[in-house]
Amino acid sequence: MKLFEDLKYRDMVANKTSEDLIDKLNNEKMTFYIGTDPTADSLHIGHLMFLILAKRLQNYGHNPIILVGGATGLIGDPRPSSERPIVSKEVIESNFNSLRNQIQGLFGFKVVNNYDWCKDINFIDYLRDYGKYFPVPYMLAKDVVKSRLEVGITYTEFSYMIMQALDFLYLYETENCALQIGGQDQWGNLTSGVELIRKKLGNQVFAMTYPLMTNSDGSKIGKSEGATIWLDKEKTSSYELYQFFLNTEDEKVVDYLKKFTFLNKEEIDELEISLKEEPHLRKPHKILAESVVRDLHGEEELEKALKVTKVLFDEKYETLTLNELLVAFRGVDSININGPKLLVDCLIESKLASSKREAREFIKNGSVKVNGIKELDVEKVLNAEDMLKESVCILKRGKKKYSLIKWQ
Fold it and tell me: Over the stretch 292-316, which tens digit does the pLDDT of each residue have?
């Protein structure tokens, strides 16, 4: 399968500026860039789409550049509802360094910073060399600008598309970069760069967008119970990353296999059949989770994730290290105790029960487990002997409700 056909199969093309791009992607070697602003010190799952897309193009012989916007990050891409808060130069620089190291470490891509060529442009040159190519009606017609006209948009935000267009021009002149790729919501900014190069130099370049990744309810992918899923394994462990994709909704798992893995069509078709004929095996979900963790963090991290997953399923908590336990239950409500305490009271404090009467009923009914062992004694007292690794005790009520008791 040729590259563009593969991208279409995976639903990774939303818009393109010219049909000529199809032949160039299939038969030529292009330098392209994808940009992101350093708003945090790590990328998250919402960014994984463009990283995988860049790697896919690289596998077909194209040359990727990732632009981390040290200059545009100081301005802020206009949001549909309100202006982004201004971030200090020190934070932006620190975030850039972190993202550069992360991207190079994960994929080995070349990373550039638009602050390097924007910092010395004075205001008069900016207006004369770039601003004159942007008619105000043209800028007002962009969707993100139109959506802000009623609530108001500052000149700073209004100028963002010019800065992004300037980036494309600079990379075209210095790196022979003829393609910019971005999310579907960036279409207006991408086409502005294409137009600037056409007007200023008379040359044709290209832009292409990919669909934004969403959950089945239409919300952006990247959150798990309110927590961001980071690509930095120190912020989101490989186990948490594995669990995030393992718990993908059935209606989205084939779509995620197409976009987030390098499995071919035949392999994905087989997994789609498995989803329909033997859904209880959850083979597509497991392959998806394994592929993402392996591609991002390596085989060793995948083995760790699989180990923790199996131990938690079997409730053999004692086989995990203290750090593995804390990672596995990160985000679970916890309480601290500094001495022996009734299990009933611990269930109430940890919100696994709403009253002593309810807590006793849960225990009598066999709904409560302490470190994976069913507890039927309503007078049970938790003490140091119940602490795994002398530090923590795991309470479970029912099938999915947990709490962590920390011994102080």
Answer: 999 999 999 999 899 989 888 888 8
